[in-house]
Design goal:
The radius of gyration is 16 Å and the shape is elongated. A hairpin with a 4-residue loop joins strand 2 and strand 3. The chain is of the alpha+beta class.
């Protein structure tokens, strides 16, 4: 099963304090140092995953990347769990390529 890793995210930089990462398939994720979550919008209103930080601490870019990866990998696992045929077809295709 495919899992997302940090190198799968393209850091697009920071604008007005908001940092942006993009996946290879074009999904953007945003984080601001004052937010305790990552979001799919620059305003931070649509939170997707909480940062794993202790009470009273501020988040870091590294923690934001970790939250993005957790969100993406949970989405993959959830999607495959609901649609086993996707993983089955991927395995068949992989076996065909090995022939």
């Amino acid at each position: 099963m495919m899992t997302y890793k940090a190198h799968d995210l393209d850091y697009k930089g920071e604008s007005s304090g908001v940092h942006n990462w993009m996946t290879q398939d074009g999904h953007s994720y945003y984080w601001h140092p004052e937010w305790l979550h990552i979001a799919e919008d620059q305003t931070g209103l649509h939170a997707k995953e909480q940062l794993d930080i202790d009470a009273g601490e501020h988040g870091t870019k590294k923690q934001a990347v970790t939250a993005i990866l957790k969100h993406l990998n949970d989405w993959v696992v959830d999607g495959l769990g609901k649609h086993q045929e996707i993983e089955d077809l991927a395995k068949i295709s992989e076996n065909e390529l090995k022939k």
